[in-house]
Amino acid sequence: MPRAVPAEEARGTPPAGRNLLFLREEELRLAQDLLFFGYRDFTAGADAILADLGMGRAHHRVLHFVGRRPGITVGELLGILAITKQSLGRVLTPLIEDGYVTQAPGQSDRRQRLLSLTEKGAALERRLYERQRDTVMAAYREAGPQAVEGFRRVMRGLMGPDARAALARLEAAPPEGTP
Length: 179
Prior knowledge:
Radius of gyration: 20 Å
Number of helices: 8
């Protein structure tokens, strides 16, 4: 009975993990190329939607993280994005003025500013998410479940301790006072 040939072998690409006992310079360069091209194409659809609205990737990042954590504080958002208050202000102010994001004082600390998406903001964030979800879903389907777990491990491995901590907070319960 003939052996089933994995899709990677059929395309001439060895399965993930094969021949990677010693990572050579060319394999590491290829990984970098894959990250650059993958990111470019992953963001292309969302970039087109944003460009039509006069927005860019910085707006998308704010919409994404505020959508992921309704009631997130400005301070938490600054930590996740690793940007200055001034940089966040340049993006957040128009999102608030254009009705995509609301801010409210904190319940226990009135100095805190809690950010949430408006209905308009949630609709835009959902549209951007669905565009990128389709790209990720197609890639996951093509790669298979073992590759998905490998991808997650590699991405976590690329993150520094601050990014891993921010991801853990995102995966945890929503902020206090969130409905």
